[in-house]
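Students often ask what a holo structure prediction actually looks like on paper. The answer is less mysterious than it sounds. You provide the chain, you provide the ligand, and the output is a string of C-alpha coordinates encoding the 3D arrangement of the protein together with FE2/S2 (inorganic) cluster.
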Amino acid sequence: MNAVSSELLREVEQFLFHEARLLDERRFEEWLELFTEDTHYWMPIVSTRERGNREVATESELAYFDDTKETLRYRVKRLYTGLAWAEEPPSRTCRFLSNIQVEQNSDASLELSTRCNLMVYRTRLETDRDLFIGTREDVLRRVNDTWQVARRSITLTESVLDANNLSIFF
Amino acid sequence: MELAAIEDLVREGGARVSRRAFVDNDVYELELARVFARCWLYLGHDSQLREPGDYFTAYMGEDPIIVTRGDDGVISALLNSCQHRGMRVCRSDSGNSRYFRCPYHGWSYNENGKLVGIPRLKTGYFDELDRENLGLVRVPRITNYKGMIWANWDPEAPTFEEYLGGMKVYLDLMLDRIPGGLEAVEGVHKWTIDGNWKFAADNFVGDMYHVPVTHGSAHSIGLRQAWSDLGYQINPGNGHGFGGEYGGLSAAENETSYTPYIKQIRAHLAEQNGDYINKIVPLGHMTIFPNFSALDTLRFRTFRVWNPVGPEKMQVHAWAIFDKALPDEIKQSIRQQYIFTFGPSGVFEQEDGENWSQSTRSTRGWIARQYDLNYSMGAGHEEPVEKVLGSNLPGQMGGIWSEINQRGFYLRWQQLLKADSWNTIREEEKALGADK
Ligand code: FES
Ligand SMILES: [Fe+2]
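The corresponding C-alpha coordinates follow.
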Protein backbone atom coordinates (compact mmCIF):
# COMPACT_ATOMS: atom_id res chain seq x y z
CA MET A 1 0.00 0.00 0.00
CA ASN A 2 1.29 3.42 -0.93
CA ALA A 3 0.23 6.92 -0.17
CA VAL A 4 -1.04 8.99 -3.08
CA SER A 5 -0.26 12.55 -4.14
CA SER A 6 -2.46 15.33 -2.84
CA GLU A 7 -3.77 15.95 -6.36
CA LEU A 8 -4.86 12.36 -6.65
CA LEU A 9 -6.37 12.45 -3.18
CA ARG A 10 -8.37 15.49 -4.18
CA GLU A 11 -9.48 13.90 -7.43
CA VAL A 12 -10.70 10.80 -5.63
CA GLU A 13 -12.52 12.85 -3.01
CA GLN A 14 -14.28 14.80 -5.73
CA PHE A 15 -15.26 11.55 -7.41
CA LEU A 16 -16.77 10.22 -4.16
CA PHE A 17 -18.60 13.50 -3.48
CA HIS A 18 -19.96 13.49 -7.01
CA GLU A 19 -21.20 9.92 -6.60
CA ALA A 20 -22.91 10.79 -3.28
CA ARG A 21 -24.54 13.77 -4.92
CA LEU A 22 -25.96 11.63 -7.74
CA LEU A 23 -27.67 9.48 -5.09
CA ASP A 24 -28.99 12.44 -3.12
CA GLU A 25 -30.35 13.89 -6.38
CA ARG A 26 -31.85 10.48 -7.29
CA ARG A 27 -29.87 10.26 -10.55
CA PHE A 28 -29.67 6.50 -10.12
CA GLU A 29 -28.99 5.57 -13.75
CA GLU A 30 -25.98 7.91 -13.89
CA TRP A 31 -24.89 6.54 -10.51
CA LEU A 32 -24.99 2.97 -11.79
CA GLU A 33 -22.58 3.89 -14.60
CA LEU A 34 -19.93 4.58 -11.99
CA PHE A 35 -19.69 0.85 -11.21
CA THR A 36 -17.57 -1.63 -13.19
CA GLU A 37 -19.28 -4.59 -14.88
CA ASP A 38 -17.57 -6.98 -12.44
CA THR A 39 -18.40 -4.88 -9.41
CA HIS A 40 -19.27 -6.37 -6.04
CA TYR A 41 -21.50 -4.25 -3.82
CA TRP A 42 -21.61 -5.70 -0.34
CA MET A 43 -22.95 -4.81 3.09
CA PRO A 44 -22.23 -7.61 5.59
CA ILE A 45 -24.33 -7.98 8.71
CA VAL A 46 -22.76 -6.96 12.00
CA SER A 47 -23.34 -8.85 15.26
CA THR A 48 -22.87 -7.93 18.89
CA ARG A 49 -20.15 -10.31 20.11
CA GLU A 50 -17.84 -10.68 23.07
CA ARG A 51 -14.54 -8.83 22.71
CA GLY A 52 -12.14 -10.81 20.55
CA ASN A 53 -14.88 -12.45 18.47
CA ARG A 54 -15.52 -11.52 14.86
CA GLU A 55 -18.38 -9.02 14.55
CA VAL A 56 -18.58 -8.58 10.79
CA ALA A 57 -19.91 -11.41 8.60
CA THR A 58 -17.68 -13.00 5.96
CA GLU A 59 -18.61 -13.15 2.29
CA SER A 60 -20.20 -16.58 2.57
CA GLU A 61 -22.36 -15.48 5.50
CA LEU A 62 -25.42 -13.27 5.67
CA ALA A 63 -25.34 -9.73 4.30
CA TYR A 64 -27.72 -6.83 3.86
CA PHE A 65 -26.52 -6.35 0.29
CA ASP A 66 -24.57 -8.81 -1.83
CA ASP A 67 -25.00 -7.44 -5.32
CA THR A 68 -23.46 -7.81 -8.72
CA LYS A 69 -23.81 -5.22 -11.45
CA GLU A 70 -26.76 -7.24 -12.75
CA THR A 71 -28.70 -7.16 -9.47
CA LEU A 72 -27.82 -3.50 -8.92
CA ARG A 73 -29.27 -2.83 -12.37
CA TYR A 74 -32.52 -4.51 -11.27
CA ARG A 75 -32.60 -2.41 -8.11
CA VAL A 76 -32.14 0.79 -10.10
CA LYS A 77 -34.66 -0.18 -12.76
CA ARG A 78 -37.20 -0.89 -10.04
CA LEU A 79 -36.99 2.68 -8.78
CA TYR A 80 -38.20 3.95 -12.17
CA THR A 81 -41.28 1.67 -12.34
CA GLY A 82 -43.45 3.87 -10.15
CA LEU A 83 -44.39 0.65 -8.31
CA ALA A 84 -41.53 0.44 -5.80
CA TRP A 85 -43.73 1.68 -2.98
CA ALA A 86 -40.97 1.81 -0.37
CA GLU A 87 -39.53 4.65 -2.52
CA GLU A 88 -42.83 6.05 -3.74
CA PRO A 89 -43.02 8.89 -2.78
CA PRO A 90 -39.21 8.87 -2.72
CA SER A 91 -37.06 9.16 0.38
CA ARG A 92 -35.08 12.36 0.84
CA THR A 93 -31.48 11.66 1.60
CA CYS A 94 -28.42 13.60 2.59
CA ARG A 95 -25.05 11.86 2.52
CA PHE A 96 -21.92 12.91 4.39
CA LEU A 97 -18.50 11.45 3.65
CA SER A 98 -15.57 12.08 5.95
CA ASN A 99 -12.21 10.71 7.14
CA ILE A 100 -11.37 9.83 3.55
CA GLN A 101 -8.16 7.86 3.08
CA VAL A 102 -6.78 6.77 -0.26
CA GLU A 103 -4.02 4.30 -1.05
CA GLN A 104 -2.50 3.01 -4.26
CA ASN A 105 -2.75 -0.77 -4.37
CA SER A 106 0.68 -1.13 -6.00
CA ASP A 107 2.91 1.15 -8.02
CA ALA A 108 1.79 -0.03 -11.41
CA SER A 109 -1.78 -0.67 -10.45
CA LEU A 110 -4.74 1.12 -11.93
CA GLU A 111 -6.61 0.47 -8.73
CA LEU A 112 -6.94 2.48 -5.54
CA SER A 113 -8.30 1.55 -2.16
CA THR A 114 -10.36 4.12 -0.33
CA ARG A 115 -11.85 4.17 3.10
CA CYS A 116 -14.25 6.70 4.51
CA ASN A 117 -16.83 7.18 7.18
CA LEU A 118 -20.32 7.47 5.83
CA MET A 119 -23.40 9.06 7.30
CA VAL A 120 -26.70 8.83 5.44
CA TYR A 121 -29.70 10.68 6.75
CA ARG A 122 -33.00 9.61 5.29
CA THR A 123 -36.40 11.13 5.85
CA ARG A 124 -39.54 9.98 4.16
CA LEU A 125 -43.26 10.58 4.22
CA GLU A 126 -44.28 12.63 7.24
CA THR A 127 -41.96 11.74 10.08
CA ASP A 128 -39.95 8.65 9.11
CA ARG A 129 -36.32 9.34 9.92
CA ASP A 130 -33.36 7.01 9.68
CA LEU A 131 -29.72 7.66 10.30
CA PHE A 132 -27.27 5.14 8.90
CA ILE A 133 -23.66 5.49 9.97
CA GLY A 134 -20.77 3.26 9.05
CA THR A 135 -17.50 2.74 7.28
CA ARG A 136 -17.16 2.26 3.57
CA GLU A 137 -14.25 0.68 1.75
CA ASP A 138 -14.05 0.91 -2.02
CA VAL A 139 -11.72 -0.36 -4.65
CA LEU A 140 -11.69 2.20 -7.45
CA ARG A 141 -10.44 1.32 -10.91
CA ARG A 142 -9.15 3.69 -13.57
CA VAL A 143 -11.33 3.21 -16.66
CA ASN A 144 -11.10 5.53 -19.67
CA ASP A 145 -9.68 8.45 -17.75
CA THR A 146 -12.20 8.26 -14.98
CA TRP A 147 -12.83 6.19 -11.88
CA GLN A 148 -15.24 3.33 -11.39
CA VAL A 149 -16.15 1.37 -8.28
CA ALA A 150 -14.89 -2.19 -8.68
CA ARG A 151 -15.77 -3.22 -5.17
CA ARG A 152 -17.68 -1.61 -2.34
CA SER A 153 -18.05 -2.83 1.17
CA ILE A 154 -20.21 -0.94 3.66
CA THR A 155 -20.18 -1.82 7.34
CA LEU A 156 -22.89 -0.10 9.36
CA THR A 157 -22.36 0.22 13.09
CA GLU A 158 -25.76 -1.26 14.01
CA SER A 159 -26.37 -4.93 14.79
CA VAL A 160 -30.15 -4.49 14.75
CA LEU A 161 -31.12 -2.12 11.98
CA ASP A 162 -33.52 0.44 13.35
CA ALA A 163 -35.24 1.04 10.01
CA ASN A 164 -38.28 -0.39 8.21
CA ASN A 165 -36.08 -1.28 5.26
CA LEU A 166 -32.93 -0.49 3.27
CA SER A 167 -34.55 0.94 0.17
CA ILE A 168 -31.71 3.37 -0.56
CA PHE A 169 -28.10 2.95 -1.73
CA PHE A 170 -24.95 3.47 0.31
CA MET B 1 -60.31 -7.22 29.34
CA GLU B 2 -63.91 -8.30 29.50
CA LEU B 3 -65.02 -11.31 27.54
CA ALA B 4 -67.48 -9.24 25.49
CA ALA B 5 -64.68 -6.93 24.42
CA ILE B 6 -62.61 -9.89 23.24
CA GLU B 7 -65.64 -11.33 21.43
CA ASP B 8 -65.88 -8.02 19.65
CA LEU B 9 -62.32 -8.12 18.32
CA VAL B 10 -62.91 -10.91 15.78
CA ARG B 11 -66.35 -11.43 14.29
CA GLU B 12 -68.19 -13.14 11.44
CA GLY B 13 -65.96 -16.19 11.40
CA GLY B 14 -62.81 -14.11 11.25
CA ALA B 15 -64.01 -11.99 8.32
CA ARG B 16 -63.97 -8.85 10.49
CA VAL B 17 -61.17 -7.92 12.82
CA SER B 18 -61.32 -4.81 14.96
CA ARG B 19 -58.48 -2.36 14.43
CA ARG B 20 -58.11 -2.23 18.18
CA ALA B 21 -56.45 -5.64 17.88
CA PHE B 22 -53.40 -3.85 16.40
CA VAL B 23 -52.95 -0.77 18.56
CA ASP B 24 -54.73 -1.23 21.88
CA ASN B 25 -52.48 -1.63 24.93
CA ASP B 26 -54.92 -3.85 26.85
CA VAL B 27 -55.15 -6.21 23.91
CA TYR B 28 -51.37 -6.23 23.68
CA GLU B 29 -50.89 -7.05 27.36
CA LEU B 30 -53.36 -9.90 27.09
CA GLU B 31 -51.58 -11.12 23.98
CA LEU B 32 -48.26 -11.29 25.84
CA ALA B 33 -49.87 -13.35 28.60
CA ARG B 34 -52.23 -15.57 26.65
CA VAL B 35 -50.56 -15.96 23.27
CA PHE B 36 -46.81 -15.53 23.71
CA ALA B 37 -46.55 -17.11 27.17
CA ARG B 38 -48.59 -20.11 26.00
CA CYS B 39 -47.76 -20.93 22.42
CA TRP B 40 -44.82 -22.75 20.88
CA LEU B 41 -42.38 -20.11 19.70
CA TYR B 42 -39.47 -20.55 17.30
CA LEU B 43 -36.06 -19.68 18.76
CA GLY B 44 -33.65 -20.65 16.00
CA HIS B 45 -32.05 -23.54 14.17
CA ASP B 46 -29.83 -26.15 15.76
CA SER B 47 -27.15 -25.39 13.15
CA GLN B 48 -26.65 -22.18 15.16
CA LEU B 49 -25.44 -24.32 18.08
CA ARG B 50 -22.77 -26.60 16.62
CA GLU B 51 -20.49 -27.10 19.64
CA PRO B 52 -21.14 -27.60 23.35
CA GLY B 53 -21.10 -24.15 24.95
CA ASP B 54 -22.47 -22.45 21.82
CA TYR B 55 -25.27 -20.01 22.52
CA PHE B 56 -27.38 -17.41 20.79
CA THR B 57 -29.94 -14.91 22.05
CA ALA B 58 -33.57 -14.67 20.99
CA TYR B 59 -36.95 -13.40 22.17
CA MET B 60 -40.15 -15.05 23.31
CA GLY B 61 -42.66 -12.25 23.10
CA GLU B 62 -40.78 -9.40 24.77
CA ASP B 63 -38.81 -11.71 27.04
CA PRO B 64 -35.11 -11.98 26.18
CA ILE B 65 -33.91 -15.58 25.98
CA ILE B 66 -30.51 -17.29 25.86
CA VAL B 67 -30.45 -20.55 23.95
CA THR B 68 -27.50 -22.77 24.89
CA ARG B 69 -26.06 -26.14 24.08
CA GLY B 70 -24.68 -27.91 27.14
CA ASP B 71 -21.81 -30.41 27.37
CA ASP B 72 -24.34 -33.20 27.12
CA GLY B 73 -25.54 -31.70 23.83
CA VAL B 74 -28.86 -30.75 25.44
CA ILE B 75 -30.36 -27.43 24.34
CA SER B 76 -31.72 -25.10 27.05
CA ALA B 77 -33.70 -21.89 26.81
CA LEU B 78 -33.14 -19.47 29.70
CA LEU B 79 -34.67 -16.12 30.59
CA ASN B 80 -31.90 -13.60 29.97
CA SER B 81 -32.49 -11.70 33.17
CA CYS B 82 -30.54 -11.98 36.41
CA GLN B 83 -32.42 -13.21 39.48
CA HIS B 84 -30.83 -10.44 41.57
CA ARG B 85 -31.85 -7.16 39.91
CA GLY B 86 -32.97 -8.33 36.50
CA MET B 87 -29.87 -7.29 34.54
CA ARG B 88 -29.37 -8.93 31.16
CA VAL B 89 -26.69 -11.51 31.82
CA CYS B 90 -25.81 -12.21 28.18
CA ARG B 91 -25.43 -9.22 25.91
CA SER B 92 -24.08 -10.92 22.78
CA ASP B 93 -25.99 -12.18 19.78
CA SER B 94 -24.07 -15.45 19.80
CA GLY B 95 -20.86 -17.05 20.97
CA ASN B 96 -19.40 -19.88 23.01
CA SER B 97 -19.29 -19.77 26.78
CA ARG B 98 -19.60 -22.10 29.76
CA TYR B 99 -21.07 -19.45 32.00
CA PHE B 100 -22.78 -16.10 31.96
CA ARG B 101 -21.53 -13.61 34.47
CA CYS B 102 -23.93 -10.82 35.33
CA PRO B 103 -22.20 -7.47 34.74
CA TYR B 104 -24.12 -5.76 37.58
CA HIS B 105 -22.97 -7.55 40.76
CA GLY B 106 -21.34 -10.61 39.32
CA TRP B 107 -23.69 -13.53 39.90
CA SER B 108 -22.61 -16.28 37.51
CA TYR B 109 -24.80 -18.88 35.85
CA ASN B 110 -23.68 -21.90 33.88
CA GLU B 111 -24.99 -22.86 30.44
CA ASN B 112 -27.87 -24.74 32.06
CA GLY B 113 -28.83 -21.62 34.02
CA LYS B 114 -27.64 -22.91 37.38
CA LEU B 115 -26.40 -20.18 39.76
CA VAL B 116 -22.77 -21.19 40.29
CA GLY B 117 -21.04 -18.04 41.52
CA ILE B 118 -22.01 -15.30 43.98
CA PRO B 119 -19.55 -12.60 45.05
CA ARG B 120 -19.44 -12.02 48.87
CA LEU B 121 -21.50 -15.12 49.49
CA LYS B 122 -20.13 -15.35 53.05
CA THR B 123 -19.56 -11.74 54.00
CA GLY B 124 -22.72 -10.46 52.33
CA TYR B 125 -25.20 -13.31 52.45
CA PHE B 126 -23.79 -15.22 55.46
CA ASP B 127 -23.93 -18.26 53.19
CA GLU B 128 -27.70 -18.23 53.53
CA LEU B 129 -28.71 -17.56 49.91
CA ASP B 130 -31.14 -20.08 48.40
CA ARG B 131 -28.84 -20.75 45.44
CA GLU B 132 -30.70 -23.82 44.23
CA ASN B 133 -33.80 -21.80 43.45
CA LEU B 134 -32.07 -18.78 42.00
CA GLY B 135 -30.93 -20.18 38.67
CA LEU B 136 -31.95 -18.33 35.51
CA VAL B 137 -35.61 -19.00 34.82
CA ARG B 138 -35.77 -21.97 32.45
CA VAL B 139 -38.33 -22.29 29.71
CA PRO B 140 -39.92 -25.56 30.82
CA ARG B 141 -40.77 -26.95 27.39
CA ILE B 142 -38.30 -27.11 24.53
CA THR B 143 -38.16 -29.31 21.48
CA ASN B 144 -35.87 -29.80 18.54
CA TYR B 145 -38.20 -30.60 15.66
CA LYS B 146 -36.08 -31.71 12.70
CA GLY B 147 -33.52 -29.04 13.49
CA MET B 148 -36.00 -26.31 14.42
CA ILE B 149 -35.80 -25.26 18.07
CA TRP B 150 -39.19 -24.42 19.59
CA ALA B 151 -40.02 -23.52 23.18
CA ASN B 152 -43.11 -23.01 25.28
CA TRP B 153 -43.60 -21.45 28.74
CA ASP B 154 -46.82 -23.27 29.53
CA PRO B 155 -46.54 -26.70 31.20
CA GLU B 156 -50.18 -27.32 30.23
CA ALA B 157 -49.66 -26.66 26.54
CA PRO B 158 -50.11 -29.46 24.03
CA THR B 159 -46.97 -31.17 22.73
CA PHE B 160 -45.39 -29.44 19.74
CA GLU B 161 -46.75 -32.05 17.35
CA GLU B 162 -50.28 -31.73 18.74
CA TYR B 163 -49.89 -27.97 18.49
CA LEU B 164 -48.95 -28.30 14.80
CA GLY B 165 -52.00 -30.50 14.27
CA GLY B 166 -52.82 -30.72 10.58
CA MET B 167 -49.82 -28.51 9.77
CA LYS B 168 -47.39 -31.31 10.55
CA VAL B 169 -47.73 -33.21 7.26
CA TYR B 170 -47.19 -29.99 5.34
CA LEU B 171 -44.33 -28.66 7.44
CA ASP B 172 -42.59 -32.01 6.99
CA LEU B 173 -42.69 -31.43 3.24
CA MET B 174 -40.49 -28.39 3.83
CA LEU B 175 -38.14 -30.05 6.31
CA ASP B 176 -37.63 -33.58 4.96
CA ARG B 177 -36.32 -32.95 1.49
CA ILE B 178 -32.96 -34.62 1.16
CA PRO B 179 -30.98 -36.59 3.72
CA GLY B 180 -28.82 -34.38 5.90
CA GLY B 181 -31.53 -31.92 6.89
CA LEU B 182 -31.41 -28.16 6.89
CA GLU B 183 -28.90 -25.56 7.83
CA ALA B 184 -29.11 -21.81 8.43
CA VAL B 185 -26.70 -19.48 6.64
CA GLU B 186 -24.41 -18.08 9.33
CA GLY B 187 -25.90 -14.84 10.67
CA VAL B 188 -29.34 -13.42 11.35
CA HIS B 189 -31.01 -10.45 9.70
CA LYS B 190 -32.31 -8.29 12.53
CA TRP B 191 -34.29 -5.15 11.97
CA THR B 192 -37.22 -3.25 13.38
CA ILE B 193 -40.48 -2.40 11.67
CA ASP B 194 -42.79 0.23 13.12
CA GLY B 195 -45.81 -2.02 12.83
CA ASN B 196 -47.91 -4.49 14.81
CA TRP B 197 -46.48 -8.02 14.60
CA LYS B 198 -49.81 -9.49 13.47
CA PHE B 199 -49.74 -7.56 10.20
CA ALA B 200 -46.60 -9.51 9.30
CA ALA B 201 -47.90 -12.86 10.56
CA ASP B 202 -51.22 -12.44 8.74
CA ASN B 203 -49.43 -11.43 5.56
CA PHE B 204 -47.33 -14.60 5.61
CA VAL B 205 -50.15 -16.91 6.68
CA GLY B 206 -52.34 -16.29 3.66
CA ASP B 207 -51.84 -13.08 1.72
CA MET B 208 -51.10 -13.75 -1.93
CA TYR B 209 -53.53 -10.96 -2.76
CA HIS B 210 -50.94 -8.26 -2.03
CA VAL B 211 -48.24 -9.79 -4.17
CA PRO B 212 -49.17 -8.52 -7.65
CA VAL B 213 -49.66 -5.01 -6.27
CA THR B 214 -47.19 -4.55 -3.42
CA HIS B 215 -44.53 -6.43 -5.36
CA GLY B 216 -45.70 -5.32 -8.78
CA SER B 217 -42.30 -3.81 -9.52
CA ALA B 218 -40.79 -7.31 -9.69
CA HIS B 219 -42.94 -8.01 -12.71
CA SER B 220 -42.25 -4.64 -14.32
CA ILE B 221 -38.49 -5.10 -14.24
CA GLY B 222 -38.71 -8.57 -15.75
CA LEU B 223 -37.85 -10.55 -12.63
CA ARG B 224 -40.99 -12.60 -13.07
CA GLN B 225 -44.03 -13.14 -15.28
CA ALA B 226 -47.45 -11.79 -14.36
CA TRP B 227 -49.40 -13.59 -11.64
CA SER B 228 -51.99 -16.13 -12.67
CA ASP B 229 -55.13 -16.98 -10.69
CA LEU B 230 -53.98 -20.54 -10.04
CA GLY B 231 -52.94 -21.42 -6.56
CA TYR B 232 -54.09 -22.30 -3.10
CA GLN B 233 -54.39 -21.26 0.51
CA ILE B 234 -54.41 -24.14 2.96
CA ASN B 235 -55.71 -23.80 6.51
CA PRO B 236 -54.80 -26.96 8.39
CA GLY B 237 -56.25 -25.62 11.67
CA ASN B 238 -54.83 -24.20 14.94
CA GLY B 239 -54.18 -20.81 13.34
CA HIS B 240 -51.43 -22.03 11.02
CA GLY B 241 -51.55 -21.71 7.25
CA PHE B 242 -49.64 -21.61 3.99
CA GLY B 243 -50.23 -20.97 0.33
CA GLY B 244 -48.84 -19.97 -3.00
CA GLU B 245 -48.93 -20.49 -6.71
CA TYR B 246 -49.43 -24.01 -8.00
CA GLY B 247 -46.04 -25.34 -9.00
CA GLY B 248 -44.34 -23.50 -6.17
CA LEU B 249 -44.03 -19.88 -5.16
CA SER B 250 -41.93 -18.02 -7.73
CA ALA B 251 -42.69 -20.69 -10.35
CA ALA B 252 -43.02 -17.82 -12.77
CA GLU B 253 -39.78 -16.16 -11.76
CA ASN B 254 -36.59 -16.48 -13.73
CA GLU B 255 -34.73 -19.68 -12.91
CA THR B 256 -31.61 -19.81 -10.77
CA SER B 257 -29.05 -22.58 -10.34
CA TYR B 258 -31.13 -23.90 -7.42
CA THR B 259 -34.28 -24.36 -9.54
CA PRO B 260 -33.27 -27.68 -11.18
CA TYR B 261 -32.37 -29.08 -7.74
CA ILE B 262 -35.64 -28.25 -6.10
CA LYS B 263 -37.51 -29.59 -9.12
CA GLN B 264 -35.61 -32.85 -8.88
CA ILE B 265 -36.27 -33.05 -5.13
CA ARG B 266 -39.94 -32.40 -5.80
CA ALA B 267 -40.16 -35.13 -8.44
CA HIS B 268 -38.71 -37.54 -5.91
CA LEU B 269 -41.18 -36.46 -3.20
CA ALA B 270 -44.05 -36.78 -5.69
CA GLU B 271 -43.08 -40.39 -6.42
CA GLN B 272 -43.29 -41.16 -2.72
CA ASN B 273 -46.37 -39.13 -1.80
CA GLY B 274 -48.48 -38.53 -4.87
CA ASP B 275 -49.06 -36.03 -7.60
CA TYR B 276 -50.32 -33.25 -5.30
CA ILE B 277 -46.68 -32.63 -4.36
CA ASN B 278 -46.09 -31.10 -7.80
CA LYS B 279 -48.70 -28.49 -6.97
CA ILE B 280 -47.75 -27.47 -3.46
CA VAL B 281 -43.99 -28.04 -3.11
CA PRO B 282 -42.19 -25.75 -2.42
CA LEU B 283 -44.83 -24.67 0.07
CA GLY B 284 -44.83 -20.93 -0.58
CA HIS B 285 -45.61 -18.49 2.23
CA MET B 286 -46.42 -19.78 5.71
CA THR B 287 -47.08 -18.84 9.30
CA ILE B 288 -47.02 -21.19 12.22
CA PHE B 289 -49.13 -19.50 14.86
CA PRO B 290 -48.37 -17.04 16.31
CA ASN B 291 -45.23 -15.39 14.94
CA PHE B 292 -43.06 -17.82 13.02
CA SER B 293 -43.17 -17.39 9.25
CA ALA B 294 -41.35 -18.93 6.34
CA LEU B 295 -41.03 -18.64 2.61
CA ASP B 296 -40.27 -21.79 0.69
CA THR B 297 -39.75 -20.97 -2.98
CA LEU B 298 -37.99 -22.21 -6.09
CA ARG B 299 -35.19 -19.74 -5.34
CA PHE B 300 -34.58 -19.87 -1.59
CA ARG B 301 -36.08 -20.58 1.80
CA THR B 302 -36.27 -18.16 4.72
CA PHE B 303 -37.44 -18.56 8.31
CA ARG B 304 -38.36 -15.54 10.38
CA VAL B 305 -39.87 -14.50 13.68
CA TRP B 306 -41.86 -11.30 14.24
CA ASN B 307 -40.99 -10.35 17.83
CA PRO B 308 -43.45 -7.86 19.33
CA VAL B 309 -41.99 -4.70 20.85
CA GLY B 310 -45.14 -3.02 22.11
CA PRO B 311 -48.26 -2.95 19.94
CA GLU B 312 -46.73 -0.70 17.31
CA LYS B 313 -43.29 -2.11 16.74
CA MET B 314 -41.65 -5.44 16.00
CA GLN B 315 -38.11 -6.72 15.81
CA VAL B 316 -37.70 -9.13 12.92
CA HIS B 317 -35.19 -11.96 13.08
CA ALA B 318 -34.75 -13.69 9.73
CA TRP B 319 -32.59 -16.54 8.46
CA ALA B 320 -31.69 -17.92 5.05
CA ILE B 321 -32.09 -21.69 5.04
CA PHE B 322 -30.83 -24.41 2.74
CA ASP B 323 -30.46 -28.19 2.57
CA LYS B 324 -27.12 -29.14 4.07
CA ALA B 325 -26.32 -31.64 1.34
CA LEU B 326 -26.54 -29.16 -1.55
CA PRO B 327 -23.30 -28.27 -3.38
CA ASP B 328 -21.60 -25.17 -2.02
CA GLU B 329 -22.12 -23.18 -5.17
CA ILE B 330 -25.90 -23.75 -5.01
CA LYS B 331 -25.94 -22.72 -1.35
CA GLN B 332 -24.23 -19.46 -2.26
CA SER B 333 -26.80 -18.83 -4.98
CA ILE B 334 -29.64 -19.44 -2.51
CA ARG B 335 -28.02 -17.05 -0.04
CA GLN B 336 -27.67 -14.33 -2.68
CA GLN B 337 -31.19 -14.79 -4.00
CA TYR B 338 -32.56 -14.47 -0.51
CA ILE B 339 -30.62 -11.27 0.19
CA PHE B 340 -31.60 -9.74 -3.15
CA THR B 341 -35.32 -10.42 -2.79
CA PHE B 342 -35.95 -10.58 0.99
CA GLY B 343 -34.41 -9.22 4.16
CA PRO B 344 -34.36 -5.45 4.79
CA SER B 345 -32.91 -4.59 1.36
CA GLY B 346 -34.86 -7.24 -0.56
CA VAL B 347 -36.61 -5.95 -3.66
CA PHE B 348 -39.75 -7.73 -2.42
CA GLU B 349 -39.48 -7.23 1.31
CA GLN B 350 -38.78 -3.47 1.28
CA GLU B 351 -42.40 -2.80 0.45
CA ASP B 352 -43.79 -5.16 3.10
CA GLY B 353 -42.24 -3.23 5.99
CA GLU B 354 -43.62 0.00 4.58
CA ASN B 355 -47.13 -1.49 4.39
CA TRP B 356 -47.17 -2.84 7.92
CA SER B 357 -45.88 0.34 9.50
CA GLN B 358 -48.34 2.52 7.61
CA SER B 359 -51.25 0.15 8.36
CA THR B 360 -50.41 0.40 12.05
CA ARG B 361 -49.96 4.16 12.03
CA SER B 362 -53.25 4.77 10.22
CA THR B 363 -55.11 2.53 12.65
CA ARG B 364 -54.20 4.44 15.79
CA GLY B 365 -56.75 7.24 15.48
CA TRP B 366 -59.85 7.08 17.64
CA ILE B 367 -62.20 7.11 14.66
CA ALA B 368 -60.21 4.49 12.75
CA ARG B 369 -60.39 2.22 15.76
CA GLN B 370 -64.19 2.17 15.53
CA TYR B 371 -63.96 0.36 12.20
CA ASP B 372 -63.07 -3.21 11.36
CA LEU B 373 -60.53 -4.56 8.93
CA ASN B 374 -61.95 -6.80 6.24
CA TYR B 375 -60.85 -10.41 5.87
CA SER B 376 -63.86 -11.72 3.93
CA MET B 377 -62.23 -12.80 0.70
CA GLY B 378 -63.35 -16.27 -0.36
CA ALA B 379 -65.49 -16.81 2.76
CA GLY B 380 -68.03 -19.54 2.11
CA HIS B 381 -65.98 -20.96 -0.76
CA GLU B 382 -63.64 -23.15 1.29
CA GLU B 383 -63.34 -26.84 0.51
CA PRO B 384 -61.68 -29.77 2.24
CA VAL B 385 -58.08 -30.10 1.01
CA GLU B 386 -58.74 -33.78 0.46
CA LYS B 387 -61.46 -33.00 -2.04
CA VAL B 388 -59.21 -30.76 -4.13
CA LEU B 389 -55.80 -32.42 -3.77
CA GLY B 390 -56.74 -35.93 -2.59
CA SER B 391 -54.40 -38.10 -0.51
CA ASN B 392 -56.27 -37.74 2.81
CA LEU B 393 -54.68 -34.32 3.34
CA PRO B 394 -55.92 -32.43 6.41
CA GLY B 395 -57.49 -28.98 6.51
CA GLN B 396 -59.64 -26.67 4.46
CA MET B 397 -58.53 -24.70 1.47
CA GLY B 398 -59.39 -21.78 -0.72
CA GLY B 399 -58.02 -20.43 -3.97
CA ILE B 400 -54.83 -18.42 -4.29
CA TRP B 401 -56.53 -15.15 -3.32
CA SER B 402 -58.63 -16.53 -0.45
CA GLU B 403 -58.26 -15.05 3.04
CA ILE B 404 -59.21 -18.37 4.64
CA ASN B 405 -55.88 -18.57 6.48
CA GLN B 406 -56.11 -15.10 7.98
CA ARG B 407 -59.58 -15.95 9.27
CA GLY B 408 -58.17 -19.11 10.84
CA PHE B 409 -55.30 -17.12 12.33
CA TYR B 410 -57.52 -14.49 14.01
CA LEU B 411 -60.06 -17.05 15.25
CA ARG B 412 -57.26 -18.98 16.94
CA TRP B 413 -55.84 -15.73 18.34
CA GLN B 414 -59.24 -14.84 19.77
CA GLN B 415 -59.74 -18.33 21.19
CA LEU B 416 -56.45 -18.00 23.08
CA LEU B 417 -57.24 -14.49 24.35
CA LYS B 418 -60.56 -15.70 25.69
CA ALA B 419 -59.42 -18.90 27.36
CA ASP B 420 -57.95 -18.81 30.85
CA SER B 421 -55.88 -21.94 30.17
CA TRP B 422 -55.02 -24.61 27.63
CA ASN B 423 -57.31 -26.95 29.51
CA THR B 424 -60.25 -24.67 28.76
CA ILE B 425 -59.32 -24.81 25.08
CA ARG B 426 -59.12 -28.60 25.24
CA GLU B 427 -62.57 -28.78 26.85
CA GLU B 428 -63.98 -26.46 24.20
CA GLU B 429 -62.51 -28.51 21.41
CA LYS B 430 -63.75 -31.74 22.94
CA ALA B 431 -67.26 -30.29 23.19
CA LEU B 432 -67.07 -29.16 19.56
CA GLY B 433 -65.90 -32.61 18.50
CA ALA B 434 -68.77 -34.25 20.40
CA ASP B 435 -71.21 -31.89 18.64
CA LYS B 436 -70.14 -33.15 15.25
S1 FES C 1 -28.29 -7.84 38.85
FE1 FES C 1 -27.18 -9.58 38.40
S2 FES C 1 -25.83 -9.74 40.06
FE2 FES C 1 -27.03 -8.06 40.59
FE1 LIG D 1 -44.93 -9.36 0.64
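The longest strand of chain B covers residues 314-323.
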